[in-house]
Amino acid sequence: MTIEPWTRPAFQPTGATATAMLVVFADDDVLGAAPDLQLKGMVPAGSPVAALDLRGHHHADGPEWMDGWRGGAVRTIAERDLGDLGRLDDAKCCYSVTVTVDDPRDLTHLQLAWAVAAALARQGAFAVLDVHAVTWLPGPAVADLPADRPFVVQREVSLTAETTPAPGFGHPVHTRGMVKFGRPDLVAGVAADGIEHTAQVLNHLARMLAEGHVLTPGQLLRFDGQRTLRVEPYEPGGAVPEVNLNNEGLLLV
After folding, report:
1. Which residues make Cβ contacts (< 8 Å) with residue 43, sequence separation at least 6?
2. CA distance 1 to 250
3. Which spans in the chain are helix H?
4. Are the beta carbons of 131 and 25 closer than 8 angstroms?
5. Phi and psi at residue 147, in whole multiples of 5°?
6. How far apart are CA 56 and CA 186, in angstroms?
7. CA 101 to CA 52: how far, in whole Å?
8. Which of 15, 39, 112, 162 could cross-link to 172 by cystine, CB 3.0-4.6 Å?
9. What angle do CA 227, 230, 235 make, to 5 degrees?
10. What CA–CA distance (Å, rounded) separates 71 from 207?
């Protein structure tokens, strides 16, 4: 089977770095001393295999590092996405899968990262954290991902709508995960009745950026013939809240 690359038909170079990171949890070491990930036929030709950084982490060797990925706010999301966390708490091993590339003209680095996570899941890993989108997937769901599936931005980027409004700003609505494309995350502040429409707008813009488009400060964006948004740098302070993007950001006002 030939796997087609996820393309960026509107690619514009920016010099930015794109990175994907997945943390894959297992009951114990599922690879052994001679790992064979069996990626043949699972990634497109020309995938940036040299950029792949796959590391195994045993809890006994570094409990703080491993526990950091299953505690705090990440744990709350794990409860939402995975349910019972008993197995996650008992896991003795995890794997970090990182692929970092400069200004990618396609998204084969993402296909490679997910292919490695799927291979680990087929070997017995049971949960996968998408670090930049801050979402979890059960291992079997990752193992069953078709290698030839089409690109869907909502699988790579998450949307968060904060339930508590910030004074003078509104409810923060923002993306997470745009660093996978070497693009900034998007932030907006809206009234409660504007959250749904704003989420649709951010999904649309996230897809554009994933395809290679660029948004620049000062740019005006018109939606539905009635709503105009201006692009500004996202700089927390004053009325603009800190949403902890762990990435560069753009504010839509």
Report:
1. 3, 49, 108, 111, 112, 115, 147
2. 40
3. 63-68, 72-82, 86-90, 108-122, 139-143, 153-156, 195-210
4. no
5. -65, -25
6. 33
7. 9
8. 162
9. 135
10. 30
As a whole number of angstroms, the distance between CA 48 and CA 221 comes to: 34
What token pair was written down for 19?
């990175």
Of 159, 108, 110, 114, nearest in space to 133 by CA: 159
How is residue 108 written in tokens? 């084969």
Residue keyed to tokens 């809206």: 190
Phi and psi at residue 43, to the nearest 5°: -135, 155
Q: Are strands 17-26 and 220-223 parallel, antiparallel or unpaired?
A: unpaired
Say how far apart CA 218 and CA 118 lie, in whole Å.
41
Name the 3-class secondary structure at 49: helix
Residue 238, φ and ψ in degrees, nearest 5: 65, -125
pLDDT in tens, 6-45: 999 999 999 999 999 999 999 999 987 656 787 888 999 9
